[in-house]
Write a structure and sequence with these properties.
alpha/beta, Rossmann fold, 2 domains, four-stranded mixed beta sheet, 19% strand, globular
Length: 348
């Protein structure tokens, strides 16, 4: 069962019946809808055309929109991103795909030095409106070059928005919102749950607002306090947090779980409200601990909730090593690593 979704099994869609999709299908539908709505939109990247992308997220787009709007590129991330920035400056709406987030580093300079700063350097005269899509994270035995989570490297850069959905409904709505946003957006897609996360997705056009987190499991104010903990998570790790919270509930510990959805600008108001309610907080993310986004979140929480805290904030994260291959499940902060953090924090 996915977050905020029923246990209804997948069935063929009938009029009036809910549609159940996975994230690949939901993202594909968002791209298709926006390409039909806005003729300026261009999709480009390695194998995004005839093949439909390495994970088949862009499948069918080339068949409908052709070579002019769905462009297979050389294996050059710097070239892909630099070309997309040029397109954006000339009024197109490019949505480049970087095949794996690990491959984004050859194009990092284009993103940081050009894309993020275009509006600032031109005094608002020019903007580079575009969304960079890329699969992120571990869990598919991809090894050290196909499993990294580089979100903090982009959150640190002024001028960029960073999004990471956890379910098909949000993936479609957030991507539509990101494409229509006037600023550049990094859209990280957790590949581990591309097909594992299934849920109801509305037909047609809708958006999930950027910079708005969602409380996916709430603690009643009457139950908050000595045995309640806030857990902040996003992407694939949200499901690990839920699994750990289910086990903690058997011990009488209640967990309020917040799916950040947009990592930056972060919805600090929702975070503060939850932490002030529970007095305890755990941040879960796949990236290494040192200088990971969890460090910034805890700094913000200490600044805004210090007098409400009943225990030290805790991070459950990846390790400060390259991402391993055979020890992948030991590296990831799965439920069995989150549960001890919950119990120790609740009993502090």
């Amino acid at each position: 069962m996915t977050v905020n979704e029923s246990k209804t099994p997948h069935a063929p869609h009938a009029s009036g019946a809910p549609r159940v999709m996975n994230m690949v299908q939901a993202i594909n539908e968002a791209l298709h809808l926006e390409m039909k709505r806005d003729e300026r939109m261009i999709v480009l990247g390695e194998d995004v055309g005839r093949v439909g992308g390495v994970f088949r997220v862009t499948q069918g787009l080339w068949d409908e929109f052709g070579d002019d709007r769905v462009i297979d590129t050389p294996l050059s991330e710097g070239g892909i991103l630099g070309t997309a920035i040029g397109m954006a400056l000339y009024g197109l709406v490019p949505v480049p795909e970087v095949q794996f987030a690990d491959f984004i580093f050859p194009g990092y300079d284009q993103i940081v030095s050009e894309l993020a700063k275009m509006r600032w350097r031109s005094g608002g005269e020019y903007s580079a409106k575009m969304v960079v899509r890329t699969p992120v994270g571990g869990g598919i035995r991809g090894g050290l070059y196909h499993s990294q989570s580089p979100e903090s490297l982009f959150i640190h850069v002024a001028g960029l928005k960073v999004v990471c959905p956890s379910n098909p409904h949000d993936a479609k709505g957030l991507l539509l919102a990101a494409i229509r946003d006037p600023d550049p957006v990094l859209f990280f897609e957790p590949k581990r749950i591309y097909r594992a996360a299934r849920g109801e997705v509305p037909e047609g056009d809708y958006v999930v607002p950027l910079s708005k987190a969602k409380v996916v499991r709430e603690v009643d104010a009457a139950d908050a306090g000595r045995a309640a903990v806030t857990i902040l998570a996003w992407g694939a790790m949200l499901y690990e947090a839920i699994a750990a919270a289910d086990k903690a509930a058997e011990q009488g510990i209640q967990c309020e779980i917040v799916d950040l959805r947009t990592l930056w600008p972060v919805d600090i108001d929702t975070i503060v409200a939850s932490v002030k309610k529970t007095g305890r907080v755990i941040v879960v993310h796949e990236a290494p601990k040192t200088c990971g986004f969890g460090a910034e979140l805890i700094a913000l929480i200490n600044e805004k909730c210090f007098l409400s805290l009943e225990a030290p904030p805790v991070r459950v994260t990846g390790f400060d090593t390259p991402f391993p291959y055979t020890l992948e499940m030991d590296y990831l902060p799965l439920a069995h690593r989150i549960l001890p953090a919950i119990t120790e924090t609740a009993r502090y």
